[in-house]
TrEMBL record:
Transmembrane segments: none
Biological processes per GO annotation: collagen metabolic process
PROSITE patterns in the record: FE2OG_OXY (PS51471)
Organism per entry: Lactuca sativa (Garden lettuce)
Cross-referenced Pfam families: 2OG-FeII_Oxy_3
Top-level taxon: Eukaryota
Enzyme class at the top of the EC tree: oxidoreductase
Protein name: procollagen-proline 3-dioxygenase
GO MF, any single term: iron ion binding
Residues in Fe2OG dioxygenase domain copies: 96-204
Amino acid sequence: MSSAGIHSPTATGTSNSMADSEHPRLILHDFLSPDLCKGFTYKSIDLQELEFIHKSCSTIGYRENVFSTTLSHLIATNSPHLILPFLPIREKLKEKVEEFFGCEYELFIEFTGLISWCKGASIGWHSDDNRPYLKQRDYAAVCYLNSYGVDFNGGLFHFQDGNPATFVPMAGDVLIYTADTRNVHSVEEITNGERLTLTLWFTRDKSHDEDVKLISSLTKHPCNSSDTYSKPYLPFPASQNMYWFPSEESLKYQSGFDIRCGRLHVLGYQFCCKDARVKSSMDFSDILLEPLHLVKGNDLFDKEFSNILHLLQVVQFYHWKGPTELKRSEFKMEAMNVVQVSMSQREEIRLLKVESLKDEDLAEVIFNGGGSVEHDWVSFCDVVDLWEAYTSNLWDNLVFRLPDWIANQSIFYE
Ligand SMILES: O=C(O)CCC(=O)C(=O)O
Ligand SMILES: [Fe+2]
């Protein structure tokens, strides 16, 4: 394997003795450099791209105050094309783990997911194979997508024995370790911010190969059919309870908040339904599945998004691309349909907010909101087109690759 693209890694314990040691582990600094995937035809890796995917697609995670985005969830919500940005790094990591532990071509990826930990999340001493249903896990690779002291506080990683005892998560670093009791570890409580990782587990057991399961879903998915229809790539939400925080409130929705609405809220956005509660009898969770308009202050963006996930994806895309970085197009005010919110719409927006954000202070604490976020409608307009181009390009790319994946029962990039 060529190491081109692995940006001046300062590896701890690259020698074999470390892989064979009492605590086999490896730290790679700056592994996820922008150069990582230079050789790939798709594009260079962008940590913010994975952040964009997580902030627009995540659901409630497996632990308190944790959110996750798995590849199978992306397929289930009609965003199978969003697995593509994971693939270059997923492949590089697998090669690295196999190389370090001397098991080339023996491993399968068991799980790939974006995982974020918010204020209050922590985990005590454990090994990653410490449940009967996790016994197949042999190795873990955790890629840190943002940084301690910058994006979050708390969240230091500790190994119970051996060195290093503490690891300070910084964007671009990777931690690789065995999933057994030779690497018992913990993560300190997050005190503020959102700590984001791309986490993979590897197994020698083929029956736990994630690719086989993903390909089975992709085979049945519309992206594998020749019926073409317009905009096949619009996301479709999973069930409402998967988006309600905290999850124990999701049976009654009396306190807490919908995480998609929470994410919009901390960026200063609201939304309303096209036909002001035609649907007055409708439940807020059904309205989130209806065509929606984006609202900021008194401005209503007069373009319909097909549902709350579509709207959130475009908004997060805008914040990924950065309003200021976007080259301002010629002034195209007339093409930009921003109208003033009417009285009846104002009331509807308020009601929707009350129902979807029972506890807006909690949403602000969890998603670290409140700061001022840049926004202007001219660049937002451009982004709607850019999102469309980005998405349909990924979709075409997926459709092109899928037959080979199915034939090989393996998801690969190169
Ligand atoms: O995010 C990390 O640093 C490690 C998380 C962890 O220990 C786990 O998910 O099992
Ligand atoms: Fe762990």
